[in-house]
Amino acid sequence: MEKGNDGSGAPPTGSFLRNDPSYSTRAIRAGFEPEAFSSLPIVPPITLATAFKQQSADQRGKFFYGRLDNPSRSSVQDAVAALEDAKHGVAFGSGTAAFAGVLQLLQAGDHIIACEDLYAGNWTYLHSLGRRQGIDVEFVDTRDVNQIAKSLKKSTRMVFLETPTNPTLKVMDLQEISALIQQHNLKIDENTEETQPQNSEKELVGCISSLSICGTNSNDSPQTLSNKETHNILTGISSDGSPRTVLESQSENILTRTNSDGGKSRADLEETKQILTETYSDGAQPTSLLSKSILDKYPQKIPADFPHTALNKENRRISNNSPCTDLGDKTERIPDGLPTTALSEETKGIQEGFPRTALDKKTKRVLIVVDNTFLSPYFQRPLNFGVDLVMHSCSKYLNGSSDVIMGMVCTNCDVLSEKLKFVQCSAGAIPSPFDCYMLHRSLRTLPLRMERHMATGLVVARYLEGHPCVRKVNHPGLPSHPQHQLSLEQTYGHSGMVSFYLKEDDLEKTKKFIQSFKLILLSSSLGGVESLAEIPLLMTRVSIPPEMNAKVGVTAGLVRLSVGLEDAPDIITDLEQALEAAFLS
Ligand SMILES: Cc1ncc(COP(=O)(O)O)c(C=O)c1O
C-alpha cells in the first residue's frame, strides 16, 4: 500500500497509509440505491414493520420477519461491510452483543488468546460468561508476537485483538500476527491430513445429510433439505471439525419425531434443523455420531446394498429406516474423494475457497478477530491484513453522535457470515430499524468526521506532550509512541483518542483535574462529536482486578480523552485551565 498525504485537506500526517481517494463516495452511497423503493428516496427509509407479507404460504421474499432481516438493517450492514472492505456485515444490538455473537463461534473447551488490555466490558465478559460457556481464556501482551506463539495450543481457536487498545493505545502488528497464525494453521492442516483419514469427514458429512433428510421425510414423501438448508445445518454443526456425537436423547428425539407412529409422524423441517443445529454446536464430545440405543432400536432394516457410499455402517441403518427414496440418487453424484454428497456447490466452494472456515477439513484453524472500534474503518481495515473478523461498537465513531447503541461484525468469509447471521437471528440480539437508520445516516459523514478527529486529536496530543504537568502521552501518531512506525504502516491515520499520564499518580489530583473541565464532558463513552474525558481506573476499568490494571499501565494518573469536533483552541484552553486547577493552584 502506498504511503503519503491523502490529499484530503487535513493537516499533513507525515506518512500514514494513503487512503482510498473514493472512500467518501463509498461512505455516501454504499448499501443503498433509491430504486430499492418505489418512491425513490435519496436516503434509506426506516422500515418499522415487524413482518412482511408473503405472496403465498410456501414462498417468502427476502424479508418476512423483522428479527430475521429488515430493509433498514440489511442496507446498513451492506454499507458498513463496504467501508470495511468486507463482503458481509452482521449487525447486533450493541458492540457487546457483537462480541458475544463472535464468541458463539467457539464452544466449550476452545481456547482464546486475547490482548490483555482488552476493552473492560469484553474482558469482564470473557471472565464471566465466556468462562461459564467453557471457553479457556488467556490474556497476553499481543504486541509481542512471540507471546502469542507461546500461548498457542491444540485447542486454540481464536486470537482476539484490539488495536489500538482501550485505553492505553497499544498497537498490534496485524501482518506479523496474521503470518504467525497462517503458519500455525498450515501445520494444523498437515496434521489434520495425517491424523484424520479423508473418510472421516466424508462420513461426518454423509451422516449429517442422512440425518437431515431422515428428519424431514416423515410421510413417505422424499422431502429433502434444500442445499442452502443443509449447508446451514452443516455450518452449525462442524464448528471444530471433529465428528461429534448427537447426544443420545436428542438423537432419539429426532428419530422419534420421524418414526413415532410407524413412520408417519412428521418431524417438522424447522424443528429438525433446529435440533440438529443445536445438537452439533453445543460442544458434545467427538465420538460416534449415533448413539448405541438408536442402533439397537432400529437394527435390521437396512439392505446391504443401500447406496449411501459416504455413510458408515451405523448410519446406513438409520437412513434406511426412513423413506428417503431419493437419497440414493444423490449419493451417486458424490465425486470420489469429495465429501460433498447431497450437498450444494456452495459447500464445495466453502471447502475449496475459504481456508479459514470452521467447516472444511482445516477446521481446527485459529481465527483472528479485531475490535476496530477505536479507529473505524476509515483509518484501519484489518481484513486486508489477513484478519478473519472485524467487530465494532458502532456506538462510537461509526455513529459518532452519541445517540445510538449498536454493534457490527464484518467478514469476507461466507461461512462465518452465515454462522453469525444464525447467531444474530437465534439469539435475537438485533438493533432496531431506527438505530440502523441513524447509523446509516452517520456513515455518510464518517470520513469528514474522522479527518477532523485526527487533526484536532493530534494538536491536543502535541499540546499535552509539551505540558510540564503531563508525564507521558499515548497517541500512535506521535513519534514518541513506541509503535509509531507500525501505526504509519498499517493505518490510514488515527482517531481522536488520546490518553495521558498526569505528572503525579495521585487519584485526588486526577479527579480534581477532570472535574475542573468547563467544556470537556466527564463521561465514559467515546467517539462522538463532543469531547469526553474519563479516569479509566475509576470509571471504565473499575471491574478489572487492580494487578491487571497495573500490568497494562492503567494507573491513578491516567486520563482518557476522546477529542471531539469542537475547535482545537477551545479544547486546549479547557485542558490548560484544568491542569492549572489541579497542579498549580
Ligand atoms: C473498544 C470497545 N469495544 C466494544 C465496546 C462495547 O460496545 P457497546 O457499548 O456498543 O456494547 C466498547 C464500549 O465502550 C469499546 O470501547
Automatic annotation (TrEMBL):
Cofactors required: pyridoxal 5'-phosphate
EC number: 4.4.1.1
Pathway per the UniProt entry: Amino-acid biosynthesis; L-cysteine biosynthesis; L-cysteine from L-homocysteine and L-serine: step 2/2
Swiss-Prot/TrEMBL keywords: Amino-acid biosynthesis, Cysteine biosynthesis, Lyase, Pyridoxal phosphate
Region (Disordered): 1-21, 233-267, 316-340
Alphabetical list of Pfam families matching this protein: Cys_Met_Meta_PP
Recorded superkingdom: Eukaryota
GO cellular component: cytoplasm
A molecular-function term among this protein's GO annotations: cystathionine gamma-lyase activity
GO process terms (BP): cysteine biosynthetic process via cystathionine; transsulfuration
Top-rank EC class of the record's enzyme: lyase
Compositionally biased tracts (Polar residues): 233-262
Family per similarity comment: Belongs to the trans-sulfuration enzymes family.
Name of the protein described by the UniProt record: cystathionine gamma-lyase
Organism encoding this protein: Hirondellea gigas
